[in-house]
Amino acid sequence: MPGINELIRVEENGNLSFGNYELNTKSKVENFEHEGDLYKVKTFHEITKLERNGMFVYESVPGTTVTKFSVRDTVVSFRVEGAKDAQITLQLEDDMDYEIFEDGVAVGGMKTNMSGKLSLSVELSEGRCVEVKVVQK
Predict the structure, then answer these.
(1) Which of 14, 68, 87, 91 gets the highest tally of CB atoms within 10 A of its CB?
(2) In the chain, what are the domains?
(3) pTM value surpassing 0.85
């Protein structure tokens, strides 16, 4: 699953897939419509960023490819792949506790800050995909 050729797409189940960590130059798609929202993705090997209606949603450093990205009431889940370990930041609810799972294993709890941002590190390597789930407690 190296990269999403169209940079962002909707899967058959309605989830989003976006990003391409293999790109050497910055690429972006703006005004991608999905379920009444407008998305913008910027991606290349150094960073991948997703915005919804002009607001921050997801960022990884270095860049990643994300599939099956789903945001439901109290759960954010996705699969992520990259060339090396990544720092991922998600926009969630302000000042809330969350449990983080990687490949089905609980890796710890975290609390978002007053701006609702949660940062986590994911061990990645070329060709290895990690399933991430963030559940509100």
Answers:
(1) 91
(2) 3-136 (2.60.220)
(3) yes
